[in-house]
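User: Reviewer 2 asked us to show a designed sequence for the structure in our supplementary figure. I'm pasting the C-alpha cells here. Could you produce the per-position amino acids so we can include them in the response letter?
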C-alpha cells in the first residue's frame, strides 16, 4: 500500500496546472449512457475515481474508443460510445469503492427503461442516503424497490410480461418514456439533482426540479447535456426546468477545472509560504474560498483563468461554516483546518454537511495540532509549529489536509492509506515537487505505477 513521505518546511514557488474537476467528470461520464452516439470529453483527470467509473462503464458495454493526451491540455481526452450495452446492472464489486456510481441509475432508466444498481460505497464521512434519488425518479414514473442491496428500477410497461427487464431494448422498439413532473427534494443533494436531471432530459413533457443543487459541477453537467441536445433552463440556479426530448446526440465537451484542487493548493501555499500561480482555474467558482484566504493573509491576484498567490507572513486563523454552494464547501473543510493548525489565533470550524467529517482531527493532533471538538464544531488554536509524525488518511479530503499540515511541519511525516488521495488528486506529489516541496511516494513492496485511463479502458475492452 503506497504512502507519502514528506519533508516539511519548504516554501512553494512556481506554477501548477489545475486538472479537470473530478465531481464534474464523473456525472458527465455517466451521461454518455443517454445517447448511442460518440461523446468526446477533454480535460478528463487521471484519477482513481475516473478509472473506476470507466471500468464500470466498460463492464456494462460502453465502448471506450480513444484515450489520448491532448497537446497543450492539462488532462486527457476520452471518447465513449454507449450504442448497445451488454447489461443494465452496476454490480456491487464495481460500485462499492465509489459512491458516484449511483449516477448511472438515471441515465440507464431514462434511455433503456430499466436499471439495477448496487447501493454505493465511498468515503465513510457520514450518511449520504439515496432516498432523494429514488423519490425523484419515482415522481418521473419509475417503479423502484430495494432488494438484496440493489436498487431495482424500471418503467412500467417498458418490457413484456415475464421478460428480462434488464435486457437492452432493440433499436426498432419505441421506448416507453418517463413522464415529466415537478420535483422538490427534501434536501439539497448534488448527485440527486444530477441523477434526476439526466433522467428528465429524455422524459416526456416538462420536469421542474426545485431546491436543486447549484454547485458548479451540476452546472457543468447541465451545459454538457445542452451540448447533447437537451433543453434546460435555469442552469446555475436552484430551479431547473427541463423540456424532455426523444433522443440526445453526441457532443464534444471540455470538463471544467477542479475548484477543490485549486483551493487545496492555495491552502498549501498559505500554510507554508511562497508564491504560486495556478493555471486552468475558474476563479468565479471560488468566491467564498478566496475571501477566506484573503482573510488568512494570502495576497491574491485573480485573472480570467489564473490565480496568483503570495504568502509572506504566518497565516491568520479563519472561522467558517460549511454549507451548500455558493457557501463554503465541505470538500475544503479539512484543508482549511490544516491551515488553521499553523495560523495565528483561534478559529471555529462548523461542519453542517457530513456528521463524520472530523475523523482527520485525531491525525492532525498527532502532528501537534491543538483542536477541541464540540458536536459539529471544531475549535482550532494555531500553533507556532507542528512536527512530523506517522499518520493515516481517513478519507479523500482528509488526506489532502494531512498533506498540507505535513508540508508546514518540522521534520518528516509519513502518510499512510493515500489511496484516498489518489481518488481525487491527479499526481499531487508530482505537482508539489515541481514547486519546491519534498514529497516522495513510497510503497510497501515494489509495484508498477497506477494504470492510466488508457490502460483501464483497454483492459475493459479486452475483458
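Assistant: Here is a per-position design you can include in the supplement:
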Amino acid at each position: 500500500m503506497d504512502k507519502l513521505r514528506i519533508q516539511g518546511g519548504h516554501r512553494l514557488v512556481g506554477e501548477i496546472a489545475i486538472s479537470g474537476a473530478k465531481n464534474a467528470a464523473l456525472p458527465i461520464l455517466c451521461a454518455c449512457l443517454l445517447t448511442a452516439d460518440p461523446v468526446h470529453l477533454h480535460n478528463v483527470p487521471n484519477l482513481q475515481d475516473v478509472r473506476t467509473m470507466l471500468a464500470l462503464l466498460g463492464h456494462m458495454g460502453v465502448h471506450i474508443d480513444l484515450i489520448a493526451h491532448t497537446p497543450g491540455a492539462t488532462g486527457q481526452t476520452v471518447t465513449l460510445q454507449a450504442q448497445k450495452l451488454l447489461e443494465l446492472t452496476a454490480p456491487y464489486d464495481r460500485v462499492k469503492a465509489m459512491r458516484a456510481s449511483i449516477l448511472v441509475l438515471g441515465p440507464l432508466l431514462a434511455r433503456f427503461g430499466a436499471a439495477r444498481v448496487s447501493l454505493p460505497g465511498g468515503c465513510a464521512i457520514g450518511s449520504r442516503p439515496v432516498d432523494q434519488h429514488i423519490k425523484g425518479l419515482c415522481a418521473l414514473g419509475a417503479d423502484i424497490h430495494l432488494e438484496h442491496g440493489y436498487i431495482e428500477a424500471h418503467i412500467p410497461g417498458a418490457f413484456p410480461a415475464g421478460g428480462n427487464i434488464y435486457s437492452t431494448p432493440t433499436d426498432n422498439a419505441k421506448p416507453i418514456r418517463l413522464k415529466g413532473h415537478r420535483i422538490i427534494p427534501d434536501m439539497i443533494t448534488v448527485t440527486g439533482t444530477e441523477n434526476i436531471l439526466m433522467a428528465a432530459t429524455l422524459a416526456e413533457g416538462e420536469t421542474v426540479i426545485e431546491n436543486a443543487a447549484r454547485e458548479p459541477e451540476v452546472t457543468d453537467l447541465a451545459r454538457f447535456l445542452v451540448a447533447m441536445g437537451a433543453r434546460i433552463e435555469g442552469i446555475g440556479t436552484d430551479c431547473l426546468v427541463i423540456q424532455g426530448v426523444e433522443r440526445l446526440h453526441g457532443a464534444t465537451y471540455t470538463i471544467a477545472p477542479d475548484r477543490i484542487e485549486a483551493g487545496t493548493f492555495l491552502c498549501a501555499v498559505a500554510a507554508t509560504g511562497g508564491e504560486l500561480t495556478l493555471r486552468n482555474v475558474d476563479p468565479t467558482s471560488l468566491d467564498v474560498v478566496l475571501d477566506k484566504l484573503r482573510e488568512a493573509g494570502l495576497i491574491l491576484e485573480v485573472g480570467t483563468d489564473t490565480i496568483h498567490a503570495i504568502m509572506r507572513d504566518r497565516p491568520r486563523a479563519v472561522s467558517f461554516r460549511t454549507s451548500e454552494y455558493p457557501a463554503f464547501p465541505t470538500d475544503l473543510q479539512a484543508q482549511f483546518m490544516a491551515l488553521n493548525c499553523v495560523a495565528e489565533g483561534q478559529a471555529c470550524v462548523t461542519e453542517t454537511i457530513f456528521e463524520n467529517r472530523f475523523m482527520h482531527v485525531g491525525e492532525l493532533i498527532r502532528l501537534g495540532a491543538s483542536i477541541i471538538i464540540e458536536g459539529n464544531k471544531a475549535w482550532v488554536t494555531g500553533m507556532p509549529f507542528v512536527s512530523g509524525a506517522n499518520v493515516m488518511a481517513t478519507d479523500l479530503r482528509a488526506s489532502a489536509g494531512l498533506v498540507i499540515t505535513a508540508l508546514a511541519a518540522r521534520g518528516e511525516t509519513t502518510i499512510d492509506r493515500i489511496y484516498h488521495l489518489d481518488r481525487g488528486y491527479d499526481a499531487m506529489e508530482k505537482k508539489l515537487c515541481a514547486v519546491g516541496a519534498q514529497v516522495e511516494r513510497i510503497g510497501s513492496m515494489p509495484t508498477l505505477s497506477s494504470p492510466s485511463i488508457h490502460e483501464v479502458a483497454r483492459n475493459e475492452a479486452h475483458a
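For the response letter, you might also mention the following. Confidence is low (pLDDT under 50) at residues 122-127, 160-168, 445-451. DSSP finds 15 helices and 24 strands in the chain.
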